[in-house]
Amino acid sequence: MDLGVFGYSKEDPSKKPINILDVGCGIGGSTRYLASKYGSQCKGITLSPVEAERARVLTAAQGLESQVSFEVADALNQPFADGSFDLIWCIECADHISDKTKFVHELNRVAAPGATIILLTWCHRDLSPLENDLHPDEKKLLTQAVSRNRAKWISAADYMNLFKSCSFQEIKYADWSPHVAPHYAEMRKITLSWKGIMSYVRHAGWRQMSIKFLMMPSVFDTFKNGLLKYCILMCQKPQ
């Protein structure tokens, strides 16, 4: 996770993020990493009080309490003043937010002038100029995956249009699917192995295992056939 490619430098103080927001921080792994790497003040938000408390415990264990804090908060209604952060980082959280327009506008609100926003998220494929929607069979497959993951995906082009609607600049996008494909292929292999099945049964019971067992092929197939892509998107708020 080297932000040098986004114009940030650990060595150059003038090119170092000072205040970072990690949206959908989970137990704070990326929050702590960014704080340690750049010496920045970092805040993480999550909807889960359990995750937030676990994040605080892990942060204390690493001696980062003076740099890193966590709050239980909604990404669509963040408890921060306008223009609070010069870097906003969001990894695999936007997938689970239905109102993408409100989400992007809220990021715009809390971003300081000149701030960078970076999303790592799943997107469905971009539509061609002659298409108005996904094919019926694609929508069916995607609906199956969405209903089991409680996720809602849009295309990378849709995200870039939302960025443009907020007058963001330096909008960039890359498809990282080839880089993460080996991980998801291995995850599917492990999940559907006898050891993986019995592990889920022990921890979650047969009912949850059946959901996991049915979900994995659908999600994997959407990824393998290009319907879903793992994307990184970046933009900057004007000065």
TrEMBL record:
<keyword id="KW-0489">Methyltransferase</keyword>
<keyword id="KW-0808">Transferase</keyword>
<comment type="similarity">
    <text>Belongs to the class I-like SAM-binding methyltransferase superfamily. gTMT family.</text>
</comment>
<feature type="region of interest" description="SAM motif III">
    <location>
        <begin position="110"/>
        <end position="119"/>
    </location>
</feature>
<feature type="region of interest" description="SAM motif I">
    <location>
        <begin position="20"/>
        <end position="29"/>
    </location>
</feature>
<dbReference type="GO" id="GO:0008757">
    <property type="term" value="F:S-adenosylmethionine-dependent methyltransferase activity"/>
</dbReference>
<dbReference type="Pfam" id="PF08241">
    <property type="entry name" value="Methyltransf_11"/>
</dbReference>
<dbReference type="GO" id="GO:0005737">
    <property type="term" value="C:cytoplasm"/>
</dbReference>
<feature type="region of interest" description="SAM motif II">
    <location>
        <begin position="83"/>
        <end position="91"/>
    </location>
</feature>
<dbReference type="GO" id="GO:0032259">
    <property type="term" value="P:methylation"/>
</dbReference>
<dbReference type="InterPro" id="IPR029063">
    <property type="entry name" value="SAM-dependent_MTases_sf"/>
</dbReference>
<dbReference type="GO" id="GO:0009820">
    <property type="term" value="P:alkaloid metabolic process"/>
</dbReference>
<comment type="pathway">
    <text>Alkaloid biosynthesis.</text>
</comment>
<keyword id="KW-0949">S-adenosyl-L-methionine</keyword>
<keyword id="KW-0017">Alkaloid metabolism</keyword>
<dbReference type="InterPro" id="IPR013216">
    <property type="entry name" value="Methyltransf_11"/>
</dbReference>
<protein>
    <recommendedName>
        <fullName>Methyltransferase type 11 domain-containing protein</fullName>
    </recommendedName>
</protein>
<dbReference type="InterPro" id="IPR025774">
    <property type="entry name" value="PiNMT-like"/>
</dbReference>
<feature type="domain" description="Methyltransferase type 11">
    <location>
        <begin position="21"/>
        <end position="118"/>
    </location>
</feature>
<comment type="subunit">
    <text>Homodimer.</text>
</comment>
